[in-house]
Amino acid sequence: MYAPPDSPADERRMTAAHHRAAGRLDVTVTGPASWGWNGRTLGRRAHHREHGDCWLRLDSAPAARRPDDLWEGTHAAWTALPGVPQPRLYAVDESRAGGTLYRAELAAHLDSPVCSAFPVLRTHLELPDRWWASLRDSLTLVQTAPTRRRTVRRQWLDVAFPRFLGLPAPRHAEFTGCHGDLHWSNLTRRGPVLLDWEAYGTAPRGYDAALLLAYSLLVPRTAARVRAELAQLLDTPAGRIARLTAAAELLQNASHGDHPELVPRLIEFAAEAGAPAARPAAS
InterPro entries, from UniProt (predicted)? Predict the structure, then answer.
């Protein structure tokens, strides 16, 4: 769980909007606040008279910049990927207050805890073979389902590879479907069920596996397990591009202050994949 917004006014605004969405969706909020990255989202456990225990998640954006790609990812994934374990989506509510747009999503509540409270793993995880087999099946289904949504764009590769890796962008990257934000707080311990599909779209083949590996680098035992279990996605020419893509993305994030503790490992990770000058860049 992340922290609430830095501004108390933003925290009050999001809390009030969440309350209004609960009323429109006819749910009673029952759980504590769970804030997303940089306090951008707010989720709480709730109860619906027909659906039972649910999760009500609220996002917001300036009215002038409606983020269609991010806001519609959960609904797109629920529609396109019926065979992938993900929370059942019951309803969506969009509203506007002043100059801010809000989108609330009501989904099934899951009893299984997530693998980590934060994206970057800090303690070793012992997960059964069937967990890894299920994850491989899910990633296969996601990769093979067609979508026009974009998670990683070729234009971004053209900029990020030289800037963060000291390499030219790959000329022939194969793009396939991806979850788009596969880290340890988006995977449940049982299943796994894949959470938070807002970034669902396309990226270089193997991107999800590479991103999960990158988020595991502080725990070598778990990182080694990821490498072994997802080798068919990582130990290929396409997997090399995916690993470099994940490294470039997280180095870019680190240049904005996210997960700076990962930077030394990311530089090593990128060097293993052939990046001669991986480095964080100033924001």
Answer: Kinase-like_dom_sf (IPR011009)
